[in-house]
Design brief:
- The protein has about 325 residues and is an alpha/beta fold.
- The chain contains twelve helices and ten strands.
- Helices cover about 40% and strands about 15% of the residues.
- Strands 1-4-5-6-7-8-9-10 form an eight-stranded parallel barrel, surrounded by eight helices.
- α4 packs across α5 and α8 packs parallel to α10.
- The structure holds ligand PBG.
Length: about 325
């Protein structure tokens, strides 16, 4: 009988030992909570495809931000869900200084000065066709005009910076979008505002529940001419290199779970902070399985977020942020994992 000389189990015997050798930590410090801002006052409209998530009016967005701060979550990411009548072909509502995201940004800035406010800079919530920019008139099949979209993106970035954004998060995957945002911000006197670049955003079906939430399913065509092909990993690194050279402050991989290999590769590739977006479909999967009693939801949430951190993400944009922060506060991270 050959006995093992090295016994890894020695360091797993007690929780104290396990804590000493634990390589990855999970805390609310790493979370960014997305907030969907809709018109009205006192509105909390449940999002059917994302159980537990709501669209909120500006006043309720402030309450959400306050709750995040109380739970130790340092940042929120704002999305606007305007009325259909505010939508047009180019999404001009996105750079309306009085728009929902801008209003919510100002209100949160005022009520919670220490909150980090990130704003999604894109057009799909604001266009009648649901694409992430200006659709080319000719061509017919709905490709997005890169450079015309960039011009508008510069307006969005400045409008959001004016409304108090700490982080501008361009998510449309247009070529050159980081340099255009950087230049526009610097010219307008916002050189202190940082860019959280959606560098490797894949053409994923896991955005499905979000599109229902934000009403952004493209009315025709698809997003595969601007978002990354799920088959490609090297291309993600090229996109990251470009965004870094254009002045990104943080680079992002999205979605997170199905692209943990990409998160890990990006971590190796850059010394900038790395964010991962744990998207709506990833959230909905856990909710659906838990509703059927097939998964221990609390443990599944913490294990999911831990896996994203282990892959190399510094920060995680996640709809689980508030519930995970509560679980961590209750000490369930250690006792139950
Ligand atoms: C696009 C955008 C998307 C998400 C946020 N902003 C994706 C898309 O529809 O292509 C997805 C977020 C999620 O699924 O959680 N501006």
């Amino acid at each position: 009988m050959q006995y093992p000389e090295y016994r890894p189990r020695r360091l797993r015997r007690r929780e104290g030992l396990r804590r000493l050798v634990r390589e990855t930590s999970l805390s609310p410090d790493h979370f960014i909570y997305p907030i969907f801002v809709c018109p009205g006052r006192g509105v909390r409209r449940p999002i059917e495809s994302m159980p537990g998530q709501v669209q909120v009016s500006v006043d309720e967005a402030v309450a959400e931000a306050q709750e995040c701060l109380e739970l130790g979550i340092p940042a929120v990411l704002l999305f606007g869900v305007p009325d259909d009548k505010r939508k047009d072909a180019v999404g001009s509502e996105a750079w309306n200084d009085g728009g929902l995201v801008q209003q919510a940004g100002r209100a949160i800035r005022k009520a919670c000065p220490e909150m980090v406010v990130a704003m999604d800079a894109c057009f799909d919530e604001y266009t009648t066709h649901g694409h992430c920019g200006v659709v080319m008139p000719e061509g017919g099949w709905g490709d997005v005009d890169n450079d015309a979209t960039l011009e508008n993106l510069a307006r969005v970035a400045v409008s959001q910076a004016k409304a108090g954004a700490d982080l501008i998060a361009p998510s449309g995957m247009m070529d050159g979008f980081v340099s255009v945002v950087r230049e526009a911000l610097d010219e307008a006197g916002y050189d202190h505002v940082a860019i959280l670049a959606y560098s490797a955003k894949y053409a994923s079906c896991f955005y499905g529940p979000f599109r229902q939430a934000a009403g952004t399913a493209p009315g025709f065509g698809h997003r595969r001419t601007y978002q990354l092909d799920p088959a490609n990993g090297h291309e993600a690194l090229r996109e990251v290199s470009l965004d870094v050279s254009e002045g990104a402050d943080i680079v992002m991989v999205k979605p997170a779970l199905l692209y943990l290999d990409v998160v890990a590769a990006v971590r190796q590739h850059t010394d900038l902070p790395v964010a991962a977006y744990n998207v709506s479909g990833e959230y909905a999967m856990l909710k659906a399985a838990a509703e059927r009693g097939w998964l221990d939801y609390d443990r599944a949430v913490l294990e999911t977020l831990l896996s994203i951190r282990r892959a190399g993400a510094d920060m995680i944009i996640t709809y689980h942020a508030k519930e995970a922060a509560r679980l961590l506060r209750a000490g369930q991270g250690e006792a139950r994992s």
